[in-house]
Write a structure and sequence with these properties.
The structure holds 2 protein chains of 2 kinds. By secondary structure, chain A is α/β, with parallel strands linked by helices. Chain A has 3 domains: 84 residues, 2-Layer Sandwich (Ribosomal Protein S5, domain 2), CATH 3.30.230; 240 residues, TIM Barrel, CATH 3.20.20.60; 60 residues, no CATH class. Chain A has an 8-stranded parallel beta barrel with strand order 5-6-7-8-9-10-11-12, surrounded by 5 helices. In chain A, strands 1-2-4-3 form a 4-stranded mixed β-sheet, with helices on one face. By secondary structure, chain B is an alpha/beta fold. Chain B has 2 domains: 160 residues, Glutaconate Coenzyme A-transferase; 245 residues, 3-Layer(aba) Sandwich (Glutaconate Coenzyme A-transferase). Helix content of chain B is 25%, strand content 22%. In chain B, the strands form 8 sheets. Chain B has an 8-stranded mixed β-sheet with strand order 18-17-16-15-19-22-26-27, covered by helices on one side. Chain B has a 7-stranded parallel β-sheet with strand order 5-14-13-10-6-7-8. In chain B, strands 9-28-29 form a 3-stranded mixed β-sheet, with no helix packed on it. In chain B, helix 8 packs across helix 9. Classes of the chains: A alpha/beta, B alpha/beta.
């Protein structure tokens, strides 16, 4: 921010449809202390705590005289604080963040190869969708600072996303943030890193240099703050140039663990539009899958935008899996189970894989170099795939981890 | 203003309740099934057919004329019914007429009130109406909560309303029954006519016990009006009006399945719970209301029936298109219907003999020789709050405001398993409290709380807990759920009330289970 400050700082949302959010206007005054004009639908139950929070923040930012107007629609403290901070920083020069504790259960890192079958997008300036996102058990949640945030809300959304990372329990989902397009997205990292974010999505990525720029910035923040948390990267390919540079991007940095494709922007770039048959995106999708496999990372497909058509989503997910993708984005919690079901192995797949893995273990026990079922020889890649299927089935709870102990060969 | 009520005494669930309100003696709640009155039921005056027109034509010129002929005067009890829900056009007219005639201090005894009745606030202010004994929602609830009603409100369940009529606790002077179809003799039904609403069960007791009964319709048919859900033999006067209700508001908006992923998750957890505990079986019965979550639960139940090739024996409803579809596709034998919520429900009731209209008497009346509610396998209900002992509130919000009626809620607690599927918090307000603001249902009758973050089973239901030993469902204690909600929302501050009481809540047996106080401004 530059040093020219506004007279009134404004942040947040209001209106009849607004939930779990608040709207604040703050202006400095010459005298009279902190005057709080609070209009809250939970006034009788949380009025005191809201006023206390505001007063604490004013003290923190050394503001002695101000008018604070606030319309509250049941916002949680982390939301109110994000709005107040965004408003204050429009009227005074103070770069210090007002931080809540990071929840104990939010202090986790994720594995490089964990499942990323479902990732739920959450608009970065909409707190009501964040609070319950984790209960739907997506593999990952994406707090989106990019396309889901209107241009005039970009600034305030960063405070909200930062506070959400610290204060919202996503119940074990991988905690991801989609930053803005590079170069603007580089500055977003100041708000995001240091809050146990697990993965950064880099939108509209077109070159390895962009990924490296993100990585360098992350590295410098980590050094500065002596952070040890692991932060993975997932570039998103959304243009023809991105598609042609897919391998370069996928293999740009050691901590790139997955690469996604965004088809809306890509088809725009091609000068065409998405159709049901999806012939127009076949090349790009295949390029991304191949680039990812070549680089040893996970290929992730685009989102499916009709949230009411679960049948079309299911068929889309099937196609996507058949093309070689490891997962899809979700824009609504109800899409999670449909995508999960269609990406996970069915009972027939699991039965066959169990047969092969069982035969492989028997062969090892007997010191045989060749795996066979009956008279049929099983090639090494097929054994590997069977192992993958079993691992997936175990992790999805479709079979027990100790299935082999009870395995009788024909279930 | 200051309302008159008697000494406050502690009832068996630890709530202070008055010994007298509105000049009438009250009995404090003594425990579930503990208070059993004796003696004879209340009986209306003898009527003789020779006093009525031999040609069966009881039509009078207007509602005003009918009210005058019924002897409308100060202090009377006037009853109306909520079959038209927010599309009711008659209740407001009654009090317009009373006001015009200079009548004062009426007791309004509706089976429920709706937002359209906030029109009556002016008559509550000017003393035309002394008090409402029935549900007070929205603006009426706010008005009452702020202590602005002259008398003290009395909240009763649908079954409790019938009980109060039967044992004489409430003696109705004039019952006005708005009917979608009627003949001049007074036979009436809800299945035909432009304001068709399905049935008129809530008016049945009023027709039998009130001193004077007026039937108002906009669809006058030649005798006989069949089916005669209300029998003309109980009716004093009939009135033809241009419009009895607004059809589009009669069929309420509560019949759309929720799109909220959080509520769908709660519905899914509820149905999985019922499946895993064996509550759903071939021939089971259930009651699910018309709210979005309840509707979704009904749909999940139906899927379980389909999957197993089972059918339900009966559904207690609040009917709408979903149970009707199950009935027509053969996955349920009967719908026992208390009120219809959409056109499909009305059509089915009209056409299908297995779609049966019920009244609070058959469904859940305390002074009956048994009631259906206790036969039902599983009942799905809502609540505004629950406390750590599973006691629940359904009438006030946590901020103390009276916002909902009891409906059939208390009566349905008699079901074999009672499940409350509710979000753990609404707009930052946690649902599980140390102590409910108003106690409407004793915890011993409430078996399961299903929230999006976990399911709590009442420790009294050892049987259910045993069945869940190997379950993958998120079973937690209410205390754990309460802590989780407060970690997210913060701990709400205590609400302060004035001493003055604004309403009492009756239990199904007519005793007083709790008191509602004036909110602090």
């Amino acid at each position: 921010m530059n040093n020219l400050k506004c007279e009134t700082g404004i942040a947040g949302n209001r209106g009849t449809a607004v939930k779990s959010d608040c709207y604040v206007e703050i202006s400095l005054t010459k005298s009279g202390g902190i005057e709080i004009d609070l209009h809250s639908k939970v006034e009788k139950l949380f009025g005191d705590s809201i006023r206390e929070l505001i007063n604490n923040m004013m003290e923190f930012y050394q503001i002695g005289n101000a008018k604070v107007y606030i319309e509250d629609f049941g916002a949680l403290n982390f939301v109110i604080a994000a709005r107040i901070e965004a408003a204050i920083k429009q009227i005074i020069n103070d770069e210090r963040p007002f931080l809540f504790e990071i929840l104990k259960q939010n202090r986790y890192s994720t594995e490089r190869n964990r499942f990323r079958i479902t990732r739920l997008y959450l608009p970065g300036n909409n707190p009501s969708l964040m609070i319950n996102a984790g209960i739907h058990k997506p593999n990952g949640i994406i707090l989106d600072l990019e396309d889901a945030v209107a241009a005039d809300k970009k600034y305030e959304s960063k405070f909200l996303v930062r506070n959400a990372l610290r204060q919202v329990d996503f119940y074990g989902a991988e905690r991801m943030v989609r930053i803005n397009q590079i170069p603007a997205g580089i500055d977003d990292l100041d708000f995001v890193i240091g809050n146990f974010v697990n993965l950064i999505l880099i939108p509209k990525c077109e070159s390895a240099a962009q990924v490296k720029a993100v990585n360098e910035k992350i590295f410098s923040i980590k050094i500065q703050n002596s952070l040890e948390e692991n932060i993975w990267l997932m570039p998103i390919i959304e243009s023809a140039l991105g598609v042609l540079n897919a391998y370069e991007i996928a293999s740009s940095c050691e901590n790139v663990v997955a690469m996604a494709i965004g088809l809306e922007d890509y088809t725009n770039d091609l000068g065409t539009k998405r159709t049901q048959k999806a012939n127009e995106t076949f090349f790009a999708r295949s390029m991304v899958v191949n680039a990812c496999r070549a680089a040893g990372i996970q290929p992730i497909d685009s989102v499916f935008s009709d949230i009411n058509d679960m049948d079309a989503l299911a068929s889309n997910a099937k196609t996507s899996k058949a093309l070689g993708f490891d997962g899809m984005g979700c824009i609504h919690p109800r899409q999670i189970n449909v995508i999960m079901d269609n990406f996970s192995p069915d009972n027939d797949d699991i039965r066959k894989a169990q047969q092969i893995v069982h035969a492989f273990i028997k062969a090892e026990e007997n010191g045989l170099g060749v795996v066979s079922i009956g008279s049929k020889m099983i090639d090494a890649p097929i054994v590997k795939r069977a192992h993958n299927t079993i691992n997936l089935a175990v992790r999805l709870g479709k079979i027990d981890a100790d299935w082999l102990q009870n395995y009788n060969g024909n279930n | 203003m200051g309302k008159k009520y008697g000494k406050m005494i502690m009832n068996s669930v630890g709530r202070l309740v008055p010994e007298e309100v509105n000049g009438e003696k009250q009995i404090a709640f003594q425990g579930v099934g503990k208070y059993i009155p004796e003696g004879r039921k209340y009986s209306p005056y003898i009527s003789s057919c020779v006093n009525f027109p031999a040609d069966g034509n009881k039509l009078v010129g207007s509602l005003k004329e009918a009210l005058i002929k019924s002897g409308l005067k100060d202090g009377m009890t006037i009853s109306t019914h909520h079959h038209f829900r927010d599309g009711d056009l008659i209740a407001n007219q009654i009090f317009d007429i009373a006001h015009e005639l200079g009548i004062r201090n009426l007791r309004w005894f509706p089976s429920a009130s709706f937002p359209c009745h906030s029109y009556l606030i002016k008559y509550l202010q000017d003393g035309t109406i002394n008090r409402i004994e029935g549900s007070m929602n929205g603006a009426l609830g706010k008005f009452a909560s702020e202590g602005k009603m002259h008398g003290i409100g009395v909240l009763r369940s649908h079954g409790g309303r019938y009980q109060a009529i039967q044992d004489g606790e409430v003696q109705i002077d004039i019952a006005v029954i708005a009917a979608p179809s009627a003949d001049a003799f007074g036979n009436a039904n809800g299945v035909n006519g432009s304001a068709a609403c399905g049935l008129l069960g809530f008016a049945l007791g009023d027709s039998q016990y009130a001193n004077k009964v007026i039937v108002v319709t906009d669809n006058l048919v030649p005798f006989p009006c069949i089916p005669w859900q209300i029998q003309g033999n109980y009716v004093d006067f009939t009135v033809k009006v241009d419009k009895v209700g607004e059809p589009e508001k009669i069929v309420s908006g509560t019949t759309t399945v929720t799109k909220s992923p959080d509520r769908l998750l709660i519905a899914e957890l509820t149905s999985k719970f019922c499946e895993q505990t064996g509550i759903i079986y071939n021939g089971f019965s259930y009651q699910a209301g018309a709210g979005g979550t309840s509707l979704s639960i009904g749909i999940y139940f139906d899927e379980i029936l389909k999957k197993n090739n089972w059918k339900a024996r009966f559904i207690r409803a609040g009917s709408n298109q979903f149970p009707v579809k199950m009935l027509e596709e053969g996955r349920v034998d009967y719908i026992l219907d208390g009120q219809t919520f959409d056109y499909e429900g009305i059509r089915s009731m009209r056409e299908n003999p297995n779609h049966v209209d019920t009244s609070p008497f058959t469904s859940y009346n305390f002074h009956g020789k048994g009631n259906f509610a206790s036969i039902i396998d599983v009942v799905i209900l809502g609540a505004t709050e629950v406390d750590l002992d599973f006691n629940a509130n359904v009438v006030t919000h946590s901020d103390g405001y009276l916002m909902h009626g009891i409906g059939g809620w208390q009566n349905c607690l008699a079901g074999k398993t009672v499940i409350l599927p509710i979000p753990l918090f609404r707009d930052r307000i946690p649902i599980i409290r140390e102590r409910v603001t108003t106690l409407c249902g004793p915890g011993e009758l409430i078996d399961v709380i299903v929230t999006e973050r976990g399911i709590a089973v009442n420790p009294l239901r050892r049987d259910l807990i045993d069945k869940l030993k190997d379950s993958n469902l998120p079973i937690k204690t209410l205390a754990e759920l309460k802590d989780e909600a407060e970690r997210i929302c913060g701990k709400p501050q205590a609400i302060e009330f004035e001493d003055e009481i604004i309403a009492i809540v009756k239990w199904v047996d007519g005793t007083v289970i709790d008191t509602i106080r004036k909110v602090k401004s």
